[in-house]
Specification:
3 strands
């Protein structure tokens, strides 16, 4: 399946549990894919959210 699912920045923020400002930053740095569909309409590739995080190596107490 190569079909993308597009959502709003608010949808993406809710999905990841972050603010829409964080989504804007991730779009700007290229870690989340998005497209402009008009002068103000931005849609986020919801499939790109899964690859946007970084793995963390927890060494703990």
């Amino acid at each position: 399946m190569n079909e993308s699912s597009w959502g709003t920045m608010e949808d993406a923020a809710l999905h990841l549990g972050v603010s829409s400002k964080t989504i804007r930053r991730r779009i700007a740095d290229g870690s989340i894919r998005a497209k402009k569909f008009g002068p103000r309409l931005v849609r986020v590739d919801m499939h790109s959210l899964e690859q946007s995080g970084r793995a963390m190596n927890w060494t703990g107490a």
